[in-house]
Amino acid sequence: MDFDFGADADALRAELRSLIAAEVPADFLGAFTDDPNDLAIAQRFCARLAAERLLTLAWPVEYGGRGGSVWDQTVVREEMWAHHEPRGAQYMGVNWVGPAIMAFGTDEQKALHLPAIGAGEVIWCQGFSEPDAGSDLASLRAKAVAVDGGWKITGQKIWTSYAEMAQWCVLAARVGSGEKKHDGITLFLVPMDTLGITVRPIASSLGRHHLNEVFFDDVVVDDNAVLGGVGNGWQAIRHALAFERVGIARYARCDRLLSALEAELGDGFDELPHAVRASWTRALVAVRVARLLAYRATHLQAEGTPADTAASVARIAVTQADQLVAEALFQALDSSSLRDKASGAVLHGAVEDHYRYAQAATVASGTIEIQRMIVGRSTVGRA
Amino acid sequence: MDPVLPDYIVELAATARRAFAELGGVDLARQAEADPRARELAGDALAALGALDIDPLADADQALAALALCREAGRVALPYPLEAMLCRHDGAVVVLVDPADPLVDHADLLDPMLAVDLAGQVHHATVAGPALGSRLGPFAVPVELQPHDGFADVDAPATIAWALSSATVLGYVEGAVDLCVEHVRTRHQFDQRLADFQAVQFQIADAVVAASGLAELALFTVWRISELGAGARVDALALRLHAADVARTAMRTAQQLHGASGVAEEYDVSVLCRRVQATLRSPVSSERNLDTLTAAIRQEGFASLFPHGRERVST
Q: In chain A, which among 82-121 make CB contacts under 8 A with chain B?
């Protein structure tokens, strides 16, 4: 047993931090702001990462990776999340769309999509949730009907992140109907410029690009758009979500912000109310625990062991730590917490941005209630 | 990076679990409260396991073995001062005390004792009276402290003592949560298992998440101590704080979901929830632990992805 990532991983972390320091402005708060230049920064950075084969480090060499270990990928994930995800929306393609295509895709799909994801040239969105199918995803109603040479898809998706900027969508739709709700669910890889797709942004406290509605009106795709076979979508979705739940290293940003704000406060940290300093300590410990649980889930996934429960356990701990940290940071800032980047907030608004984003942590990628259901049911078993 | 417990540690834990079960499991704790001589059975079992030959500061393997045994002992509230027996310095056992009211579990079995307080002061400790015999501290023995003349480098044993007491708490938590899961699976109300109520499942899930996190933190902390010795004092304090926080919530859940059985002595969960208090509250409360930890992080840093503490220590 050894919790040391080793010299190579340490060197990789240092390399990534140097790259971020050189390529990403200190006041960067992610690609999804009102400033289009932030997206441009992320795209340039992705190209740079891809050139170094760092974007898909853990992918096999044949797909544009370095054949790195999951722990190398973990280092990348942590550094990217810690620094406001300068990969922009790329993490979705890298973290789970690519691996899902590797696991379930045809040779043609692999050839078409994996090099593009590896090069950081394409943004994916995820067409899962619907107005009447959020946590109960298997109730989705988007419908795919066979037509000559392909499929015609009709339905509405909601809460779709990056839909305005994405070139491709992993779309879950229903083909026919079966005895169970999961029957017939099929994944399609759909170009977002296909005729019949309409994107409508939803205003949110998170900022721009995080939430959208997407309408599919008689959208026609080829047979080769189906990922993993007709009716096999649920298996791929479960596989994808387990990867996504572990892949979002929120704890790394928590860690960095606790560090940065303490430095910013200087001796003023010691003047904070006792209770605030105490909650700060508990938050630091919670971040460590969340990180260790994420590592446990990562280890199980790497071993090929079913990791659904471990991924949900980690997800609960990570999202709760995220909110605990957000509150501890805000408690330290008093009324200054109301300032954002434009109105002169501390740390260029990084804390304010984190707080708003953290409020959705226990909803995104499956609500905490769904995670509890997964953990609870797997623990108590069936009657 | 390899977060997996070695096979022989897993085997040692399984062997210990069988040995403690053969002693009657939690029943031995009940017996010892009625007749403290029953504690000898626990001592004999531990000796047979080779537990008393383990030096948790010698290497990572022995540190993990000590953690595994304390964890298994906690699962059945084993009535024996295992942690103290494992933390030794110069022929004496090292115990943690609160000088304001120095109480040491099973101190009558420990001689000689070096007692360390939260400030790191070292004392000689001797038994000052009989065990309290109270419901929450049946084996807590008052001790008298005398200043220790000269230098005794007990920082490393004290650090591992904090960690092993946390490992014992982890065992209590896991024991209680397992009992709770078994109870809600088998108990029916309103024509269904308690386990089939979502409100129950959610509470179980939260307890499982808390226990899982504590288990990971315990392994990580013991590994840190094996690497750094007393240099991992902050990590040990952090583990101790988290163990207390988790025990309070997860064991409360375990007791609550048992209904009235949760406070009935014939149910093991009641004994576990009662007996864990001696480990949780002594030598100091978690809030005092928290104060010490907060100051220590500020002074010494906290190993993480980014530097923490006044000196911006990055480890």
A: 82
With a cut of 70, say whether residue A264 has pLDDT above it: yes
In chain A, residues with a C-beta closer than 8 Å to the C-beta of B66 are none
As a whole number, the mean pLDDT across chain B is 96
Say what the pLDDT of residue B284 is.
93
Q: Which of B5, B204, B304 is nearest residue A1 as measured by Cβ atoms? A: B5
For the segment A167-217, what is each residue's pLDDT rounded down to a tens digit? 999 999 999 987 888 899 999 999 999 999 999 999 999 887 889 999 999
Chain A residue numbers touching B3 (CB-CB < 8 A): 1, 3, 292, 295-296, 299
Give the percent of chain A with pLDDT over 90.
78
Q: What is the DSSP letter of B194?
A: G
Cis peptide bond prior to B112, omega within 30° of 0: yes
Where does the pLDDT of residue A242 fall: very low under 50, low under 70, confident under 90, or very high at 90 and above?
confident
Average pLDDT over residues B285-290: 96
CA-nearest of A9, A356, A41, A58 to A211 is: A356
Beta carbons of B217 and A289 less than 8 angstroms apart: yes
Considering only CB atoms, which chain B residues are within 8 Å of A377?
201
When pLDDT is averaged across residues B179-190 and rounded to a whole number, the result is: 97
Say whether B208 and A375 touch across the interface (CB within 8 A): yes
**Predicted pLDDT at A60:** 87
Candidate from B60, B184, B213 with C-beta closest to A380? B184
CB distance B306–A258 less than 8 Å? yes
Per-residue pLDDT band for B315 (boundaries 50, 70, 90) equals: very low
With cut-offs at 50, 70 and 90, classify the pLDDT of residue B149.
confident
Provide, as residue numbers in chain A, all residues whose Cβ is less than 8 Å from the Cβ of B287: 278
3-class SS at B297? Answer: helix
Name the residue in chain B with its Cα closest to that of A258: B308
A373 has pLDDT over 90:
yes
Nearest CB neighbour to A259, from listed B201, B220, B308 = B308
Interface contact flag, B209 A317, Cβ < 8 Å: yes
How many residues are there in chain B?
A: 315
Name chain B contacts of A4, Cβ cutoff 8 Å: 1
pTM for the full model?
0.96
The answer to whether the CB atoms of B223 and A2 lie below 8 A apart is yes
Q: What is the pLDDT of residue A267?
A: 94
Angle between helices A368-380 and A308-333 (to 10 degrees): 140
B312: pLDDT confidence band, cut at 50, 70 and 90? low
CB contact under 8 Å between B198 and A373, yes or no, is: yes
CB contacts of A3 in chain B (<8 Å) are: 1, 3, 220, 223-224
Are residues A284 and B297, on separate chains, in Cβ contact within 8 Å?
A: yes
